[in-house]
Amino acid sequence: xxxxxxxxxxxxxxxxxxxxxxxxxxxxxxxxxxxxxxxxxxxxxxxxxxxxxxxxxxxxxxxxxxxxxxxxxxxxxxxxxxxxxxxxxxxxxxxxxxxxxxxxxx
Length: 106
Ligand code: FES
Hints:
Strand content: 15-25%
Mean pLDDT: 94
Bound molecules: FE2/S2 (inorganic) cluster
CATH topology: Ubiquitin-like (UB roll)
CATH architecture: Roll
Shape: globular
Distance between the termini: 37 Å
Helix content: 10-25%
């Protein structure tokens, strides 16, 4: 089971989750990392769930077209959309310092 660590400020939250877990789906049913994770649409449109991957990025699938559209150059800075990630290995994330995106044009 992957260990997910979510850093927020001086605090660190960590929990083992089932293979192939989506953190926004879990937060939506008030499971880890709720209430710490900022998110919105859950569909790769709003960008509110953008996270900086601090560790474990190599185990993630390549960014899909939604992440490319919403994050653009920020992908190269280590940002990913949590709602588009299916966690299969240990990962450490934060939203500290990750600004809300400007509105995305349809
Ligand atoms: S929650 Fe809206 S893009 Fe992820």
